[in-house]
Design a protein that fits this description.
This protein has two domains: 196 residues, Orthogonal Bundle (Fumarase C, Chain B, domain 1), CATH 1.10.275; 304 residues, Fumarase C, Chain A, domain 2 (Up-down Bundle). The chain is built from 20 helices and nine strands. Helix 4 packs antiparallel against helix 5. The radius of gyration is 26 Å and the shape is elongated. The mean pLDDT is 93.
């Protein structure tokens, strides 16, 4: 796990995943490095030198998109930038989560700090000031096509920098932006040539959500190894198939890491030892959902690693159009197109759905008398009077079906916009939004598997589980009672989901095993 900083300096190199998470989720303070400040000033000098040029320069002395053919006179250029932001702040629908907006603003600031955008230092500094004050612009669910950047979401952020619109404070209270800026001693920015365009022309919204998703999936995939180990153990499965030499025959790194985790978690299990004798155990092979857990979770890990490589490149990029080159040219380009990010966001939604799917299959095995190796139907205390975890699996199944729908790729879609000037778009923002819902679904599915597997392990008494799985059960039992007659199940599901979401289940295991992969 990367070290979580309480202060992030922008412009001393590419931001790390930990930097983004620290600012987005933990309100780390943000400053602009001295070298970056110098680069911002130099690029601004280039833009100002072009302001009086009779030759049109896109975004400096022209309109935008399909209106780029109009030359804008000098006296209207400040209005041009304000009008751009106001008209593009056209989002609709529910508010986007605070952490997403903060990540978006940080990543826009990171591009401004590259010295390729031509904004003034005061304009860049305003983003740091809003972040440090804990003021979060209202951004809406719909409005980005993932091309020409996340235009509407970024425009809503830029609107706040201008002192317009509304923001929420650290406590979630809604304020008129002008009043909130005054209360925090922040001066609204009066945009000048190119600045409005530079503030909205980036992939920051989809990239911020990708970084947060990768961070969450890394924890969830390790947790999936924990719930898989609990299920294999509780269903009297074998850990022999997870042996290192068997995994090495097919040397995918994610698979090896997952299998190693399961071996560590199941180590020292009296339940496992109770059926190790091949003379006493007649089962030749476990079902795929048990035996192939490392192959599925491992493939997902390798997909996350690929997505992380794409995100790392994007974190080191300057996304704007036009850009100011190191040689002082101002050039139009297509780097704002979100395709590289959109593809991996969609890919992650696919593997998220599949990891949830195999988790649900393991849960279902616990509930079927014909397949659960001697446990009661549905793990019920008095089957027929009690339903046990029957409907918990229904909930899992409903979520898994939803995840399959969310796995349908957004990036294969495109709707032309701006009078056919922007005739092929990435839909990367949409891919990011559905991935966030997918990750929430996977968290809930794993929580239900954990809850069910814990009951299955308890019902193997007097045989004891492995020390590591016993630690998870003990953590769960702090808030949830063990096997018994039917109780209100939703609160127990939520307790298990929170163990997964907060990382407490993972922490409980690692206190026994040491760090897992």
């Amino acid at each position: 796990m990367e070290h979580m900083s309480t202060s992030v300096i922008v412009g001393v190199g590419p931001l790390s995943f930990a930097d983004v998470v620290a600012v987005a989720r933990h309100d780390a303070t943000v400053t602009i490095g001295d070298e970056a400040a110098d680069g911002i000033r130099r690029s601004r000098e280039v833009i100002e030198a072009l302001a009086d040029d009779t030759i049109p320069h896109y975004g400096v002395s022209t309109g935008f998109g399909a209106l780029a053919t109009r030359h804008i006179p000098l006296e209207l250029r400040a209005q041009l930038q304000r009008s751009l932001v106001r008209s593009h702040a056209a989002g609709s629908g529910p508010e986007v989560e605070r952490e997403v907006v903060r990540a978006t603003m940080l990543l826009r600031l990171s591009t401004l700090a590259t010295g390729h955008t031509g904004v003034r230092l005061d304009t860049a500094q305003a983003y740091a000031e809003l972040l440090n004050a804990g003021l979060t612009p209202i951004v809406h669910e719909y409005g980005s096509l993932g091309c020409s950047g996340d235009l509407a979401p970024l425009a809503h952020c830029a609107l706040a920098v201008m002192g317009e619109g509304k923001v929420r404070d650290r406590d979630g209270e809604l304020h008129v932006t002008a009043d909130a800026l005054t209360a925090h001693g922040i001066t609204p920015v009066e945009l000048r040539e190119k600045e409005g365009l530079a503030l909205i022309n980036g992939t920051d919204g989809m990239l911020g959500q990708l970084v947060l998703a990768i961070t969450d999936l890394r924890r969830l995939l390790t947790t999936a190894d924990i719930t898989a180990a609990m299920s294999v153990e509780g269903l009297l499965g074998t850990d022999d198939v997870f042996a290192a030499d068997l995994q090495a025959i097919r040397p995918h790194p994610g698979q090896a890491a997952s299998a190693e985790n399961i071996r560590k978690i199941m180590a020292g299990s009296p339940i496992r030892e109770s059926h190790r004798d091949p003379q006493a155990c007649t089962r030749v092979q476990d079902a795929y959902s048990l035996r192939c857990s490392p192959q599925v979770a491992g493939g997902a890990r390798d997909t996350v690693a690929h997505a992380a490589s794409v995100a790392t490149i994007e974190l080191a990029s300057a996304i704007d159009n036009p850009v100011v080159t190191r040689g002082g040219r101002v050039e139009s380009n297509g780097n704002f197109h979100g395709a590289p990010i959109a593809y991996v966001l969609d890919f992650l939604a696919i593997v998220t759905a599949d990891v949830a799917s195999i988790s649900e299959r393991r849960t279902d095995r616990f509930l079927d008398k014909a397949r659960n190796a001697g446990l009661n139907p549905f793990l019920a205390d008095d089957p027929g009077v009690d339903s046990g975890h029957m409907i918990a699996q229904y909930t899992q199944a409903a979520i898994v079906s939803e995840l399959k729908r969310l796995a349908s790729p957004a990036s294969v879609d495109s709707i032309p916009s701006s009078a056919m000037q922007e005739d092929h778009v990435s839909m990367g923002w949409s891919a990011a939004r559905k991935l966030r819902r997918s990750i929430d679904g996977l968290t809930r599915v794993l929580g239900i598997e954990l809850l069910t597997a814990a009951r299955g392990l308890d019902l193997r008494a007097p045989l004891a589980p492995a020390p590591a799985t016993a630690a998870v059960v003990a953590e769960l039992r702090k808030t949830t009672a063990g096997p018994g007659t039917d109780r209100h199940l939703a609160p127990e599901i939520e307790s298990a989901v929170q163990l997964v979401a907060t990382g407490e289940a993972l922490a409980a295991v690692e206190r026994v095993t040491g760090p897992l992969n």
